[in-house]
Specification:
alpha+beta, 110 residues, 4 helices, Trna Endonuclease, Chain: A, domain 1, two-stranded antiparallel ribbon
């Protein structure tokens, strides 16, 4: 991986952390604090393993498989992706999405 690609990835991780902080979550880049190749790219959103992909050529399943293989037990693997001039999008398995929706509906109904 070139230095330019690594730098773009770091910038993307900072962008995601900042976006999460702007919504009240205490997020930071993961590599800085936990180290190691299996740590999430961004930490601070408990229960989620966040991988960031700031690239034009996005391999959805490869990115999701990376998140799934590196996550801790009980965490939901989530991939954040953004290409140039585009907003961030979030990718997760349909089953995980439906679990989150059910939790949200249950919380509102209570």
């Amino acid at each position: 991986m070139s230095k330019m690609s690594r730098d773009k990835g770091k910038v993307g991780e900072r962008e995601v952390a900042e976006l999460l902080r702007s919504h009240g979550f205490p997020a930071r880049r993961g590599q800085q604090f936990r180290g190691g190749p299996g740590s999430p790219d961004v930490i601070g959103l408990d229960g989620f393993h966040i991988e960031c992909k700031r690239t034009e050529k996005f391999s959805l399943y490869a990115a999701l498989e990376q998140a799934m293989s590196e996550k801790r037990d009980g965490d939901i693997p989530v991939v954040w992706h953004r290409s140039n001039q585009r907003p961030w999008v979030v990718v997760l398995k349909a089953e995980d999405f439906l679990t989150l929706v059910k939790l949200g509906v249950t919380a509102r109904a209570a």
